Amino acid sequence: MLSLTGRAAVSPDGVLTTSPDRRTARSIRVIAGVAEHPIAFRALSDVVRVGAAVSAVAALVGIPSVGLGTRFLLVLLVLMIPRATGGVPAPLDLAFTVTLLAAVWMSTAEWYDAGPVSWLVHVVAAGVTAVVLHLVLARTGVLPAPDGWSWAERTRVVARTVGIGVVVGGVWEAYRWLEPVVVSLAAHTSADLVVHMLGNTVGALVAGLALAAVGRGSNAPPAGAATSPTAVGDRLRSIL
Predict the structure, then answer these.
(1) Which of 1, 108, 112, 218 has its CA at 20 to 30 Å from residue 36's CA atom?
(2) Is the peptide bond before 64 cis (omega within 30 degrees of 0)?
(3) How far separated are the first and last CA of the chain, in Å rounded?
(4) pTM for the full predicted model
């Protein structure tokens, strides 16, 4: 039996080992250290992007499948948007990249046939994508930054996020609907379309409400504050 007292434990054969409590504390410190350094999240996000590129090459060359390869290439292009524009918090960027790549792999592995998996994946993917694109559009000046956080402004934030989620989800569903016409993949049914668009809408709505709720404690920008696209995106990004 190991003695857990002190900073180390001694086994019956006299070997000095690290106690579970000390190992747990060290793990917590490592995790906390990663969370405090956005560069770690950025690096992990870039690893996922590389994974998307490798997946596309593997699908095009290894399987080979033009349809699956095209899916991964499209996802890779979307994943590169926040990397190119900036304006997305590092943890959210990681969640975004992991979610979309996992969603495509789950579809490829036909996990969507298992119960409500397809609907849940669409809810999560649409929600995180809507928030990310909302921040990107604000960063680039396409959307205005919130002018204070009144109920009216929060309502507009929710509406914009839902709109982005529905449009992006609709474009993806349109591609999936037309995909079998171009390549030999399973056809998208009308039931799939309805269920997926419902999931996209719910996910975007929840994401929009969360984005508005997070911003409740934020104050309106002071008079004369910068209104450049960069400043606009930074003000919206600061609520996360």
Answers:
(1) 218
(2) yes
(3) 47
(4) 0.72
Q: Which two tokens stand for residue 88?
A: 């997305």
Amino acid at 105: W
Q: Are the beta carbons of 204 and 169 closer than 8 angstroms?
A: yes
206 vs 9, 62, 177, CA distance in Å?
A: 48, 39, 26
CA distance to 43, 44, 45, 162, 198, per residue, from 204 (Å): 27, 25, 22, 5, 10
Cα–Cα distance measured from residue 240 to residue 236, given in angstroms and rounded to the nearest whole number? 8
Q: Which residues contact 51 (CB under 8 A, 6 or more apart)?
A: 101
Please choose, from the candidates 214, 29, 54, the residue with its C-alpha nearest in 3D space to the C-alpha of residue 131. Answer: 214
Which residue ranges in the chain fall short of pLDDT 50?
Answer: 1-11, 15-18, 20, 27-28, 30-35, 217-233, 235-240
Q: DSSP letter at 154? A: H
Helix, strand or coil, per DSSP, at residue 227: coil
- Quote the CA–CA distance of 74 and 5 in Å, as a whole number: 55
Asked if residues 184 and 115 have their Cβ atoms less than 8 Å apart, the reply is: no
The amino acid sitting at 122 is H
DSSP assignment letter at 89:
-
Is-contact 221 232, C-beta < 8 A? no
Query: Do the bridges between strand 16-18 and strand 8-10 make them parallel or antiparallel, or are there none, so unpaired?
Result: antiparallel
Beta partners for residue 9, in sequence order: 17
